[in-house]
Amino acid sequence: MTDTASIIHGLIEQALKGDAAARQQLLEHYRGSLTRMVASRLDRRLARRVDPSDVVQETLADASARMDDYLRERAVPFLAWLRRLAGERVIDTHRRHIGSQRRSIMRENRGVDRSGEEWGSLAARFMANDTSPSNRLSREERRQQVAAALTALPPRDREVLEMRYLEQLGAAEIAEALGITEGAVKARLLRALIRMRALLEARP
Length: 204
Hints:
- The protein is mostly helical.
- The chain has 11 helices and no strands.
- Helix 3 crosses helix 4 and helix 9 packs across helix 11.
């Protein structure tokens, strides 16, 4: 067990005994990683309307209210539980904002084909930061190719790549979130990268 895992385990044990400070520490420990997760999953059309930190605050408030249920059952790792709550909040945010403000938001993107854009930010992480005018066109073509390859990957592969390169989680946190060992995380990352490379090499 890593030092961080040991600390989290200790906080959970204290929280089980009714320690309010331990409960708050548990929630605050993951605020940063949850913010990166939410930021990477929010629709880009909501960038000017929704602050990821607000979604995370709602998530943590929800987690605080449901903490007793989690501590009683502990069916999944704590981080996995928080990420699930955050994912639900992201979905709810999309429904509320894109549904209730459909006319104004959709007007911004009318006629735009969003296919392949979902993984555009992640695709950019795999590419060199070359923004010279002479290379912008080829860079955009490469970004689209990488995004298409990411879209073609199995969901499990995309998930681990997103957690590592967009959310910037370390192997230990990814392992905690997925309920697997760090060795399994590294193996899954390597497998995902190999599959993505094969997809890219197969493209003209």
